[in-house]
Amino acid sequence: MKPADFEYHAPKSLDEALALLATHRDDGKLLAGGQSLVPVMNFRLARPAHLIDLNGIAELDYLREDKGVLRIGALTRHAAFHRPALAGPTGELLRQVVQHIAHYPIRMRGTFVGSIAHADPASEWCVVVRLLEAEIVARSQRGERRLKAADYFHGTFATALEIDEVLTEVRLPVLDRSWRVGFYEFSRRAGDFALAMTAVALKRAGQKISEARIAIGGVEDRPSRVAAAEALLVQGRSPADAAGAVASAVRPMEDIHADAAYRKDLVRATTERALAQALA
Amino acid sequence: MSWIGRSIRRFEDRALLLGRGRYTADSANGAAAVRFARTPVPRGRIRAIAKPDGAMIFTAADLADVKAIRPLLHRPDYIPIAQPPLARERVNYVGEAFAVVVADDAATAEDVAESVEAEIDAEEAVVDLDAALAPGAPKVHDAGASNVIVEGRLHTQGVDAAFQRAAQVVEVDIRSRRQSAMPLEPRGGHAAWDEASGRVTLTCSVQMPHMLRTGLADALGMPEAELRVIAPDVGGGFGQKMQLFPEYVVLVWLARRLHRPVAWLEDRHENFLAAAHARDQHYIVRAAFDAEARLLAVDADIRCNVGAYSCYPTTCGVEPLMALAELPGPYDFREYAVVARGVATNTCMMAPYRGVSRPVLTFTLERLMDTAAKRFGIDPVEIRRRNLIRKFPYTSASGLVYDEGSYLQTLEAAATAIDLPAFRREQARLRGEGRYVGVGFSSFSERSGYGSRAFAARKMDIVPGYESVELAMDPSGYVVARIGASPHGQGLRTTLAQIIADGLGVPPERIRIVHGDTDQTPYGWGTFASRSLVISGGACKLAAEALARRIAAVAGSLLEASASDIELADGQARVKGTDKAIDIARIARIAY
To answer: Which of B73, B209, B458, B566 is close enough to B78 for a disulfide, judged by CB 3.0 to 4.6 Å?
Structure first.
C-alpha cells in the first residue's frame, strides 16, 4: 500500500498552482485534505504523475460570512463546522451534518471544498450544496467561473470542473431565521458512507410552509432536489406524503450494500425524519 | 488471600499503552524489503513469468528444493492438498503469490512486484460453494473425485424413525458469507541470517512459534536447531496467525540464500486478499419435533467453502468437522444425521477464525428454534426451555460429553432480568402504534481448552495439545517461567503469574513470564482455541507445586521442621501454627 511514483509540488500561491495544473493537466492531481485521494493512491487506483499540494496556499484558507453568503475557502476543514460557523439555521445545519462525515481524525484533515470537487454520491456536503443552491467558484489561468449547484454535479465523481480548474471556493447563501432545517442519514455503521440521506429547509409563515427544500444523497449518482415533494409541503400536505413523493421520484443506485427497493424505503424514512426535525 | 481471581493491573499493558511495544516491524530496520507478486487470475496455468531486468526476483523454479505444505488428517475421507511456497504450474486463487521480489525499500519492492508479469492461460474458475458441489463443476485440484476434500458423516440409528413419527418437521437454510479476521497488525516477518552460528532467526507475527518452526524446518529440509522463531508483541491473531503460511517459508529460504536480513510486512490490502479467510458456509438443517415441540432428531447438510488449499496444521477439516461435532450445542436430542463437507474452490484458503464454525451453527440452531416456536405458536423462550440439556453429565448425539452446564438456569435468569411478560405486553402496545420492538434469545455452548486427547480425536497428523513450563527461582528469589504458549493480548503474563504466585507464596510481581521465543522456551503449541489459561495455566500450577515442595524441603531443614508442616505465603516459608519463618528469597540464596 505504497502509492506509485509521483512528483510532489508545493505551490505557495494560487497562481503557481494554476500554472502547474495548466502544465500537467490530466497527469496532475490536487491535494487538499487527501482523505479520499491518498487512500486510492495507496491502493494504486489513482496514479497521478504530479501531485499538486494546495495546503501551503494561505489565500485559500478562510471561512467567513460576507453579505448573506458563507464563503468557504478550499482549505477549510470539515472540523471547522463542529461548532456553528455562524448563528442561525445555516450554522446549525452545518454543525449537525458534519457529525455524519466519517470520523473525527478524518474531519480534522478533510476539506469541505475537496468533498465538492470529489463529488462522491454519498457526500453529505454535496447534499448541503444542493439544498442551499450554493455557488461554486472555479479558477484557472483562463479566468474564473461561477457554477450553479444544479448544473455542477454530473454523476459519480463527475462534475462540471474543467481539467485545468481549481475549485477555490463554495459560496453558501445564508438562510434567515424564518427557516427551519433538518438532516437525517442512514449508514450501516457510524461514519460509513450513507445509503440514504435527506437534508431539508422549510420557510415558515405562521402555521404554513411558504417555501420548502428537500435534497437527497446517497441514493442516486448525484445529490438532487425533489421538486414534486417540495410542492406537496407548500400545499399543506403531510411529511409522510412528501416522503412518499421522494421515494417514488428517485431512481436509486444498486450495489452490494442496498438494492433499489431498499434505498427507496430508506430515503422515504430519512426524508420523513429530517422533516420531523425541521417541524419540531 | 488468593492471587487468582484478584483484579490487578496487567503487567503487559504499560509498554503497550506507552507505545513502547515491540512488534515485528520494529525489528525490521535495515532489512531488505520483500514483496510478493500476486495473481489477479483465480485459476489458470502459468506459461511464463517475465522478470524486469536488474531486479532481484525469485519464482517457484528457484525454490525447487522446498517442499510443498501438505497438512494431513488421518481419515479416509480426507484428500491431502499440496500448497507450493510460490505457485508452480498453476494459480488457484486471486492473491496467490507466483514470485517474490527483494529490494532495498518497500516502495521499490512494490513497484517491482507490480511489474512482474505472469503469462497465465486462464481457466474456468469455481468460487461459489454450492456451484463447486454441482455436477460437472470445474475441479480445483486433480486429486479426488470432486471438489469435496474432506467429508464427515454421522447417522444415528433412529433418525429415520424419528422423522416418521414427528409432529412437525422444521427446516432452515442458512448461508454465511466469507469473513476475514482482520488483526490490527497484518502478517509479517523478519528473517536474519547469522554467519557465526549458521542459523536464521525469524521474527514474525504469529500465535504459535514452535509449531511454525517445525513446519518451516520440514518444508525447508533443515534441522529445527538452525532456526529460531520469535513472536514478539503480536497485534491480534484470532486464528489467522496460527498457520504455516508459504510467505514465511519463502522468507527463511531468502535469508539462507541471500545471507542478508529480509523483511516482509504485509499491508492491509494484501491481508484482505491473501491471508486466511473463514466462515463461507451453508447449512441446510431439518429438525423433527414431537407434538410438545421437543426435538427428536436433526438432519444437517453442512457445507464449508475451504478455499484452494488446506491450512497447516489444522487442515481444511477444521470448520466442517467442528460444525459436525458441535452442532447439537446446548440442545438435547438423541438422533442426529449429518454430512459435513469441506469444498475446495478457487478462493483464498480458509483457516480457523474465532469460534470456528460455531458462530454460524449457533445462528442456524437459534433460527431453527425461533422458526419452530412460531410453527408451534409458543414463545421462543418456552421452546428453548423444553429443549435445553438439563441432566449432567450428558453425552451428545455426536458423542461429546458435557460435564455440567446451566443452560436452563441462564435462560430463566435472562428472561427474569428483562421481565419477559411485561416486555411482551409493552411490545403489543407499541405494535398498536406502529412501532416495532423485539427481543431475541440465543443459547450456546462452546467447547474450549482443548488438550491432546481432543485434538487427537480429530486425527490431525500434527497433534497439538499439551503445554509445558520451565519454572526456576533464581538466587534473588525471583521466578522465571518459560512457557510454550504464545500470548498476544490474552494477558497471560499477568494471569499465569497469579497462578504461580499462589503456588509459591510470593507476589506475582516477582514472577516473569517468558514466551514467544523458541530459543528461550520449551516446546509448546501456542495460543489459540481458548486453551492457554486452561492448559498452560494447568502446567504452571503443577510446576509451582513441584517448586513449592522443594522450597518447603529446604525451609524444613533450616527451620528444623517437617517439610509437610511448612506453608508458603507472603514471601515467607513458615512452620504452620508458629511464628517460625524464613524469607523465601533467603531460601533461594541458601539453596544456590
So the answer is: B73
